[in-house]
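Why does residue order matter? Because the sequence determines the fold. Keep that principle in mind as you read this record.
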Amino acid sequence: MSSVVFGPGLRRFRLLLTVRLVGQFGDGAFQAALATYVVFSPQNAATPAKVAEAFAVLLLPFTVIGPFAGVFLDRWRRRQMLLWANLARAALVLGVAACAAAGSAGPLFYLLALGGFSANRFILAGLSAGLPHTVTGKQLIVANAVSPTLGTLATTIGAGVSVVVHAVAGHGSGSVAGVLVCTAGLYALAGLFALMIPAGALGPDNPALTALRSDLGAVVRGVAAGARHVVERPAAGRPLAAVAVSRFCYGAVTIMTLLLFRNAFDDPHDTNAGLAGFAFAVGVSGVGFGLGAVTTPFVARRTSLHRWIPLCLAASGIIELVFGSPFRELPLLIGAFLLGFFAQGQKISTDTLVQRNVDDEFRGRVFVFYDMLYNGAFVLAAAFAAAALPLNGRSYLVLGVVSGAYLLAALWYTLRRPDKPISRRPEPIPADQPTTPAVP
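Structure:
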């Protein structure tokens, strides 16, 4: 795995990884600052409806705005998108910081925050679409293990640093604003690292040349084309359907966990304890993500990714029953670690199967469609949680629905698994980039 990160001729991959790590560290700090300001402040009561509303407000625009990214990622140079999207969100986060410093949490605050998170859709989709241009085909599965996983860990560390800052400096608007200003600086730095990558190095190799009669029409046609491209390739479409189910379940569990730490495990008036407990659970899950990333490439050498995905789903369903049903802190933390492990194993497998089985000129649109499913499933989970969860987060009904959905998805995937998946390797990398094989 280290040969992918430190191997000769992989400077572009390392720069792309740096853009991801710096930006996602900022994402973690941004998310924790907003959570502290909106959910874990003593003056606000965290009901299921309010928590679900906060998640929906942050994620639903991603699903709506996300389709725009794919169309432009397949038309414009992806390096340029990474540069300008990072600079744009730096400016938006500075606006959020100004609102927080003024003690405002009104429409402008949420509008600017939504703008910052929406820019993130362009960035993450661009990182995924550009990744195959920086490594060889043999290195792709390891690159998919390294990049998103280190990105997730960077997000977790960023959130942890933000939580520590708030614990030391207090939950006042001043500390939130300070963290947000630093976050804007990190986004600007990520844009500068993107600028160090050659302008055409991340593709697309064959940009879409059809005229844009209208932006809205182009977006709708582009996403529809990406969706059709996936449907025509079951080896990519079935993993996407399975990961959408998994994301729905993970979203419901996340909101349940937040409510448990906010209103059940600790005194609801002690917001520091609730935030620290929830942050620790997220960190434990992040450790599971890391272990899942290390393990998945080794699993892939011994079995098919199409077999590993239903195993991850089935294991997640069992974990929820065993470690979720006590509704106690220690079993929940164990379950968070194991759920993170299998969720990351499934995510890496899905990323790799999608990248291998779609054409490069569609890759940007496919990955934005992927983001739509991913975030839309979480929004549905938020709506479900708002209707079904009590104030303290304890619900055997929700637990049963989540576990059953995992197990049914595993059964469906096993029965419908394609025996001969289409294998479409990434386009050849430029001639000036060495093709040193990596240790998978």
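The domain at 2-204+226-416 is CATH 1.20.1250.20 (Growth Hormone; Chain: A;).
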